[in-house]
Amino acid sequence: MGFDPAQRFVRLVAAGRGVIYGVQADGVLRWYRHAGWSTGGVSWANALGREIGTDWQHFVQVLATADGQLFGITGDGRIRWYRYRLDDPDGGSGDGSWHPASGTVIHDGFARFPRVFGGYDGVLYGVAADGTLWWHRYTAGDGRIGPDAWALGGVAQQIGSGFQRYPQLFGAPSGVVFGAEVAGKLWWWRYRAGDGSAGPTAWANNGFRLLIGSGWSADSRQE
Questions:
Q1: What are 104-136's pLDDT values in tens digits?
Q2: Which side of the chain, N or C, has fewer Cβ within a 10 Å radius?
Q3: Burial of 130 (C-beta count, 10 Å sphere; 0-12/13-18/19+)
Q4: Three-state secondary-structure class, residue 89
Q5: Does the pLDDT value for residue 221 go beyond 60?
Q6: Over pLDDT 90: what percentage of the chain?
């Protein structure tokens, strides 16, 4: 079955340095790189991108790092690890391959989180139903499993609360978190501790959010 051209991508995942992964409605995973990512230029590596995988529609969330790691999160709370390696990651040419450990389940305890976001630097944030924010970091970076593959043995660390009010949450490098409210206000935080510790000093601005934009609701329209 092919994809609906009007709804081609069900998920777009930014991975840093211009790399974007697109999950099509038919499950095909495509790799793109915006060659003009640092200047706003319109050039793209490898023209139309590369088809690099299939069956990715089964993941309820996909997150990525800047070094080719991807985390596929299933509906039952498992995290499968992948790493795509390309001979010429800047130009998008040459042969590409998956790390032999790709597809390994590296964690199975994320069912408690209705939402998971992040990915950069191996950091995964889980938002519980009560709005508490939990921090995890996959440090192995090679598909290994077990407590030694995660910071703090893979035990989730609560670093915040009140995040149920943001229907859209996404992370950026260096601990930056963005949250968009239903009304469209966009808020900024930065978790600067980076080690699972909690409290006001673990966050920039003592943990107080900063308003950085408006018009970010799902039904906002730009003229």
A1: 999 999 999 999 999 999 999 999 999 999 999
A2: C
A3: exposed
A4: coil
A5: no
A6: 78
List the CATH number of the domain containing 194.
2.115.10
Residue 218 resides in a domain = no
Domain of 25, in residue numbers? 5-213
135 within a domain of the structure (yes/no)? yes
Total H helices, total E strands in the chain: 0, 17
Bridge partners (DSSP) of residue 133 are: 127, 160
For the chain, where are the alpha helices, taking DSSP H only?
A: none
User: CA of 115: how far to CAs of 30, 191, 197, in Å?
Assistant: 24, 18, 21
Q: What are phi and psi of 174, to 5 degrees?
A: 60, 30
Residues 6+ apart with CB under 8 A from 138: 69, 71, 81, 106, 107, 122, 124, 149, 150, 151
Q: What is the pLDDT of residues 177-206, one digit of tens each?
A: 999 999 999 999 999 999 999 999 999 999
